[in-house]
Amino acid sequence: MISLREIFDIFYYNWKWFVLSALVCLALSRLYLATKPNVYQRQAVMLVKDEGSNYNRRATVSTDALMALNGVLSGSSVKNEVYILRSHLLMKEVARKLHLDVHYTLEGVLRDVSLYDVKPFEVQFFDEIEDSVKVATFEARVLNKNEVRISALQDVEASYDYDKVVRFGQRVKTPIGILSIIPNLQNIETFVGKTIVVTHIDMESAANYVGKRISTGEMDKESTLVRITCTDTNVKRADDILNALLEAYKQSIITDKNKLAQSTANFIDDRIQLISKELGDVERELAQFKQGSNIVDVTQSAQAYLNQSTTARQRTVQLQAQQATVNYLVEHIRSHSEGNSLIPSLSGVTDAGIQAQINKYNEMMLSRNRLVENSGENAITIKEMDANLREMRQAILVSLKGFSSSVDLQVRQAQREENELKSTLASVPQKEKKVIDITRQQAIKEALYTYLLNKREETALQLAISEANIRIIEYPFGSKVPISPRKKIIMLAALLFGCALPFVIIYAISLLNMGVRGEGINHKQIVTRET
After folding, report:
1. Are 235 and 250 spatial neighbours (Cβ–Cβ below 8 Å)?
2. Which SS3 state, helix, strand or coil, does residue 126 take?
3. CA dist., res. 426 & res. 184, Å (int)
4. DSSP-assigned letter for residue 166
5. CA 178 to CA 166: how far, in whole Å?
6. Angle between helices 430-464 and 303-335 (to 10 degrees)
C-alpha cells in the first residue's frame, strides 16, 4: 500500500508534469465548452381561477361524489390544464405564431450559432411542407444591402446544383420551393460577407421542437398555481415561446366558452322562432274570435273572474312556462344523443342539482373535444370519457323527467284550483269564457317569449365579454446564467483529472520498475531516476 511519503515524493519530484497535465486538461475543457451552446431556463406562473360561487362549488363537490358512487370518474381540473398546456395543438399554434418552422444558423469556427432576435433577414416560403419528415435547407451569403447569394440547396430526397444571386424581397422559384428573402435593415450590415444556413421544416416538426422545450407542473398540491418552464439556447426565444403559449392557451379557453354560449344562443333562437309562431297563431285566433262574435271589451264582463283567479292563473303560467323549458331541454338532449354537442344552460330549470349536472357535463364535453384533437376518437381516454358522458346524459335525462313530473303535478293542482273558480262563473257568457281561454294561452306564450328574449340578451353579453379563467402571476423571467453546460463543474473535473493522470502514470511506472529490478531498490530512488 502506497504511503503518504511516497505520494509526496511523486508530487515533489514531478511537479512540472502535474502542472503541465492540469493546464492541458483545463485547455481541453475550455475547448469543449466553446463547442457547446449555452442553454438558459425561463419560466412563467399562472393561476387557474375558480369562477364558481361557494354554493356552486359545494354543488360540484356533491355532484363529483354522486358520480364517483355511480362509477363516473372526474379528474382534477388543474392537472387537466397542466396537460393541455403541453398539448400538440397549442405547440403548433406557438410554432405558427413565431414562425419556428424556419431556423437560421450562423456557421462558426467551433460551433454554429442559432439566430433568432438578431438576424440579417427572414425567409418566406410560399409552399407549405406537407411531408412530416421533409426538411429543406440552403445557404444564403449576404453580399451587400441589396443582394444575397443562394446556394447548396438540398432536401431529404436530393442535393441540387443551384447557385444564384437574388435581390432582397424578390420572389424566387427554387428546387425546394418558391421563397422570398426579406432583409432586416437594422442588422444587415453586420452580416455582410457571412453565410447563413436556412432550414425549413414542416409545422408538425416545429410543434415537436417547441414541445421538447416546454415543461409544466403544479406549484404545490394545495393551490391552483401552474409553473411553465422553457429551456432554450436563446433567452428572447424562450420568453417569446412562453408568452405565445400563454396567449394561445387563453384564446383556447375563450373559444371553448364561446362554443358553450353559442350553443345556448342557437338553442334560444330556435325556441324564439317556434314560440313567436305559436304566439302569432294565438293572437290571430283571438282577433278572429272577437271579430266573429262582435266582442270589443271582455274586461268588464270577466272582471270578477279575473280578480278571483289572478293568483292561480299566474302560478299556472309560471309552472307551464317552466314545464315547457324542461320539455325543450329533454327534446334537445334526445335529438343530440349521439353527438358531441353541449347542453344549453337555462335558468328556467330551478333545480340546483340538475344545473350542477349540466355544468359538469359541459365541462367534461369541452375537455373531451379538446383532447380528441390531440389523441383521436379511438384513444382509450376518449372512449372512457364518451362512456362517462353517456352515463351523465342519461342521469340528466332521468333528473329532468323527475323534475318535469313534479312540475306537472303542480300544474294540475293549479289548474284544479282554477277550475273551481270557473265553476262560479256559470253566468259568464260562453263567448267570454272562450276569450279568457285564448287570453290565458296568449299570456303563457308571451311569458315564455319574454323569458327567451331576456336569455338571448344575456347570452349575447356573455359572448361579448368572455374572458379566460386564468391570471398571469409571473410573466417570463429567469436568470441570465446558463443552466448548461455547467462550466465550473466541468473545469473542476478537468483540473482533478489533470492532477490525477500523471500520478497514476508515474505510480504505475514505479510499480513496474520495482517488479523488474527487485523490491530492494528504494522507491524514492526510482521516482528520482524516472524524473
Report:
1. no
2. coil
3. 93
4. E
5. 13
6. 50
Q: What is the pLDDT of residue 153?
A: 92
Closest CA to 432 of 313, 297, 309, 317: 297
Q: Please identify every stretch of the chain with a pLDDT value under 50, giving residue numbers as ranges.
A: 52-75, 130-133, 427, 517-531
Contact in structure between 26 and 494 (CB atoms under 8 Å): yes
Cell numbers for 457:
340578451
* Cell numbers linked to 229: 418552464
Helix, strand, or coil (residue 157): coil
| Strand-pair category, 195-201 with 135-142 | antiparallel
> Where is 329: in which H helix or E strand?
helix 303-335
Using an 8 Å Cβ cutoff, are 214 and 23 in contact?
A: no
The total number of residues shown for the chain amounts to 531
pLDDT at residue number 463:
65
Q: Quick one: how many helices (H) and strands (E) in the chain?
A: 13, 13
How many C-beta neighbours within 10 Å does residue 339 have? 8
Q: For residue 121, with 0-12 CB atoms within 10 Å meaning exposed, 13-18 middle and 19 or more buried, which class applies? A: buried
- Own/partner pairs for 207-214, CB < 8 Å, 24+ apart? 207/88, 207/91, 207/92, 207/94, 207/95, 208/91, 209/95, 209/100, 210/91, 210/94, 210/95, 210/100, 210/241, 211/86, 211/88, 211/91, 213/238, 213/241, 214/85, 214/86, 214/91, 214/241, 214/245
pLDDT of residue 490: 87
Q: Strand 177-183 to strand 159-167: parallel, antiparallel, or no bridges (unpaired)?
A: unpaired
Comparing CA positions, the residue from 258, 256, 250, 203 lying closest to residue 228 is: 250
User: CB atoms < 10 A from the CB of 472, how many?
Assistant: 15
DSSP string, 61-120: HHHHHHHHHTT-----HHHHHHHHTT-HHHHHHHHHHHTTTEEEEE--SSS-EEESSS-S
Distance CA 519, CA 513 (A): 9
pLDDT score, position 51: 56
Per-residue model confidence (pLDDT) at position 428: 54
Nearest to 20 by CA among 344, 378, 502, 531: 502
Locate 482 and state its grid cell: 446558463
Distance from the Cα of residue 130 to its chain's centroid: 24
Grid coordinates of 511: 510499480
- Grid look-up 421542437 returns 209
Q: What is the pLDDT of residues 350-362, one digit of tens each?
A: 777 888 888 888 8
